[in-house]
Amino acid sequence: MAGMWELPEHTGMNGGAVPLFTLRHSITVTDYTVHVWRDAALSREGKWISAQRLPQVALTGLARKILRKAEVFHSIARC
């Protein structure tokens, strides 16, 4: 979404490893199943920010949902 921050996306398979967690997300009439992985070898592309700056950035609903479930940022308000 334009002007909003999102987490990096990985579309390939993760070598049979088990995801950190899986969640469901809906946008209008489309339902998604999202697998979240902990991957230390993420791309350096994009702009990374610290967890302390999260309250100051516009996050997508999916990014907020993932960060809450991963317990990275506890006080993101539910929208």
Structure description:
With 79 residues, the protein is α+β, with helices and mostly antiparallel strands. It has a domain at 49-79. The chain is 11% helix and 18% strand. It has 1 helix and 2 strands, in the order ββα. It has a two-stranded antiparallel ribbon with strand order 1-2. β1 (21-27) and β2 form a beta hairpin. The longest helix is centred in the C-terminal third of the chain and has 9 residues, at 61-69. It is globular, with a radius of gyration of 13 Å. It starts with 20 loop residues before the first strand and ends in a 10-residue tail after the last helix. The mean pLDDT is 81.
- Gap between N and C termini: 16 Å
> The biggest beta sheet, please?
2 strands, antiparallel
Mean pLDDT: 81
Report the C-alpha radius of gyration, rounded: 13 Å
The chain-level structural class is alpha+beta
Strand content: 15-25%
**What does the overall shape look like?**
globular
**Helicity, as a percent range:** 10-25%
Strand order of the largest sheet: 1-2
Which blocks of ≥5 consecutive residues have pLDDT under 50? Answer: none
Output the number of helix runs.
1
Total strands: the figure is 2
Order of helices and strands: EEH
Pick out its properties.
globular, alpha+beta, 79 residues
